[in-house]
Structure formats: structure tokens, C-alpha cells
Amino acid sequence: MAKNPLLEYSEVLACEIAALCNNHKIDSNAAYQIKKSSSSVFANISEAQYPQSLADMLSKFEIARKECMETESWLKLILSSGGIDEVTFKEYRNLCGRIRRMLTSSCITIENKLKQS
Hints:
There is one protein chain. The chain is mostly helical. It has a single domain (5-116), classed as de novo design (two linked rop proteins) (Up-down Bundle), CATH 1.20.1440.60. It is 83% helix and 0% strand. α3 packs antiparallel against α4 (86-116). The longest helix is centred in the C-terminal third of the chain and has 31 residues, at 86-116. The radius of gyration is 15 Å and the shape is elongated.
């Protein structure tokens, strides 16, 4: 089976955010919310691997992109409240950015295919 970097990066994000929440002093609500949003990124990208249609795939990718932005927002809040340091924040923000750029590119490609059909 061919490698899927988008799926792999999103799985790493979900797993590492869960570990981050378990290993740092993070407010329980923030920990719950960031684990929820980062796992949603992975879940939606996973669902998009077997779409009912191109429009369905586009929808899953758009949701994943929004959840990725939410994850970044929670990272900023956790940084501001002292739950993580700047190095950790930048590491995960950069991973979110990488995933978001890949999702944006995929969405553009799918939108162009939908316009052609």
C-alpha cells in the first residue's frame, strides 16, 4: 500500500497531542478539547480515504482543516496559560501547519475536479 503522508502526519498529531496532555500540567478542559480536535483531524482524514464521492472527500478534508485550526488555537491557549513551553508549541504548530497546507492543496485539487465534471 502506498504511503499517505497526510494520514501519517495526522495520526502523529493525534497521538502526540494525547501524550502531551498526559505528560504536562494542562487544564482538564483544554486537554479534553485539544485531544478532541486533533483526533478529529485524524478521523476525518481517515474517513476521506474511502469517500462516497469527491464532494464527500472534500467535505471531510474541509472539516479536518477546521479542526486543525482549532488544535492550533488550543495550543496557543495552552502556551499562554503556561501548560507548554514555546519550543513545544512551535513543534506542534508547525505540524498543524504542514497538515493544513496539505489539506488546502488537496481541497483545491478536488474543487477543480468537481468543476470539470
